[in-house]
């Protein structure tokens, strides 16, 4: 079994146990209210306080919330600032409030929803909506790379769930036994989500012919990088199928776990880590006359990007070749930036962190371009690679919907009512 190095942290969120829901039906919580807020005294002895205006704004009744589209119908800006209950009732199914704002019907709040929505205090960690436990890896992943059979993915949505769960956990997943054609590869890609078309086209099938003004379309070596650092929203998943290995040798593929490398940098040199978290990097793709790709924030985005709320690793954006002229570094930061960049480069090019593998016809790789860096060795002769990009949100949505479909409520790690 592959050596599991370490999880970022055990981020299996505290799941809401359904047993607590049933007990509400038997003995609804006691509630109190005043001109400003409602207080719910849960059976566990904990209490939650909700501002009246927050409750009116989040009313779940049909007059204020569309039960199918999950969209708000109430016009928040018209809720009077002195909104307060005229009457409040703690019923077996939930909390019912009649407001002083002239709304005919009361507002209703199912107990499970109210508990999961508690913000004062927070009772459920809903920040991990799209995340499950992540397992960091290094070169030892070669002992047992996450792999799944082609037929399972093609013929069963559980196979797609299994594949995307590997992407969520490891950031990378292989499919073996794939029919070695571009058509079959494109069909496999569509099992995940629709393809993200870019200035390189939709489903790409390329050789070293400089068809596009990018060194990917040459035979030179490419160091570990993530793609599309020049996009405001870098592509999410990247799929490769090497239909024709280089006829005169070389062209092996490289993968590196950028999250593990970022963690190593943080442990090794917190100042360098913080520099790469706080320094925006400009990038461009301007090698073809038909495209001038620049990020909307021209100063660019940092190499290491963290979740604003949890400070968890969210996205690695690193491509040394595509980095533009840096005119926005404070002069006193220049040397610190290059020092930090060098440390980062030493870690991602440490052979202990590199997973080199010779892709081949029939073996498809899918990886999270927001986490896993990729590269390739130089090669000689003819080499043909096909593949595609998928938006990160479309991948995450496909995974969430498959979890909803197949996983027990307590295993989904989603908080489906928090829309
Ligand atoms: C994958 N495909 C060959 C279509 C495009 C490769 C783009 C490479 C570019 N330097 C970047 O890092 O985004
Ligand atoms: O040719 C390859 O194996 C990968 C090329 C590459 O790095 C890219 O397309 O971003």
UniProtKB/TrEMBL annotation:
MF term (GO), any: iron ion binding
Keyword Iron appears in the UniProt entry: yes
Pathway assignment: Amine and polyamine biosynthesis; carnitine biosynthesis
EC number(s) given by UniProt: 1.14.11.8
GO cellular component, one term: mitochondrion
Biological process per Gene Ontology, one example term: carnitine biosynthetic process
Organism superkingdom: Eukaryota
Keywords of this entry: Carnitine biosynthesis, Dioxygenase, Iron, Metal-binding, Oxidoreductase
Reactions listed under catalytic activity: N(6),N(6),N(6)-trimethyl-L-lysine + 2-oxoglutarate + O2 = (3S)-3-hydroxy-N(6),N(6),N(6)-trimethyl-L-lysine + succinate + CO2
SUPFAM superfamilies according to UniProt: Clavaminate synthase-like (SSF51197)
InterPro entries: AlphaKG_dependent_hydroxylases, GBBH-like_N, GBBH-like_N_sf, TauD-like_sf, TauD/TfdA-like, Trimethyllysine_dOase
Leading EC class: oxidoreductase
Residue span(s) of domain TauD/TfdA-like: 148-389
Domain Gamma-butyrobetaine hydroxylase-like N-terminal: residue ranges: 32-115
Requisite cofactors: Fe(2+); L-ascorbate
Reported function: Converts trimethyllysine (TML) into hydroxytrimethyllysine (HTML).
Protein family per UniProt: Belongs to the gamma-BBH/TMLD family.
Name this polypeptide is given: trimethyllysine dioxygenase
């Amino acid at each position: 079994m592959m050596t599991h190095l370490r999880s970022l942290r055990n981020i299996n969120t505290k799941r809401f146990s359904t047993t607590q829901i049933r007990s509400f039906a038997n003995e609804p919580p006691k509630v109190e209210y005043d001109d400003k807020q409602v207080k719910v005294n849960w059976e566990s002895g904990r209490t939650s306080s909700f501002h009246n205006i927050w409750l009116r704004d989040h009313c779940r009744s049909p007059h204020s919330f569309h039960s199918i589209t999950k969209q708000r119908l109430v016009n928040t800006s018209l809720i009077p600032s002195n909104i307060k209950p005229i009457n409040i009732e703690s019923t077996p199914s939930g909390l019912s409030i009649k407001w002083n704002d002239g709304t005919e019907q009361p507002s209703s709040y199912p107990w499970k929803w109210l508990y999961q929505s508690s913000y004062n205090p927070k009772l459920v960690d809903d920040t991990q909506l799209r995340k499950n436990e992540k397992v960091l890896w290094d070169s030892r992943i070669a002992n047992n790379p996450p792999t799944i059979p082609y037929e399972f993915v093609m013929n069963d949505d559980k196979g797609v769930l299994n594949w995307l769960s590997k992407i969520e956990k490891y950031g990378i997943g292989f499919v073996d036994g794939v029919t070695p054609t571009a058509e079959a590869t494109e069909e496999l890609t569509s099992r995940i989500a629709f393809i993200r078309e870019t200035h390189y086209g939709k489903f790409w099938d390329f050789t070293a012919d400089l068809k596009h003004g990018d060194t990917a379309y040459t035979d030179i070596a490419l160091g570990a990088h993530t793609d599309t650092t020049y996009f405001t929203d870098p592509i999410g998943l990247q799929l490769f199928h090497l239909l024709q290995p280089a006829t005169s040798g070389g062209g092996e593929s490289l993968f590196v776990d950028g999250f593990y490398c970022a963690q190593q940098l943080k442990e090794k040199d917190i100042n360098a880590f913080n520099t790469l978290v706080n320094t925006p990097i400009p990038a461009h793709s301007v090698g073809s006359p038909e495209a001038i790709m620049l990020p909307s924030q021209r100063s660019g985005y940092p190499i290491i990007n963290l979740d604003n709320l949890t400070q968890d690793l969210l996205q690695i954006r690193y491509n040394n070749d595509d980095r533009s002229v840096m005119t926005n570094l404070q002069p006193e930061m220049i040397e610190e930036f290059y020092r930090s960049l060098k440390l980062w480069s030493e870690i991602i090019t440490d052979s202990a962190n590199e997973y080199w593998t010779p892709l081949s016809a029939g073996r498809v790789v899918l990886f999270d371009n927001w986490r896993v860096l990729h590269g390739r060795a130089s090669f000689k002769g003819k080499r043909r690679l096909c593949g595609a990009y998928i938006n990160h949100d479309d991948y995450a949505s496909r995974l969430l919907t498959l979890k909803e479909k197949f996983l027990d409520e307590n295993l989904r790690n989603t908080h489906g009512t928090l829309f």
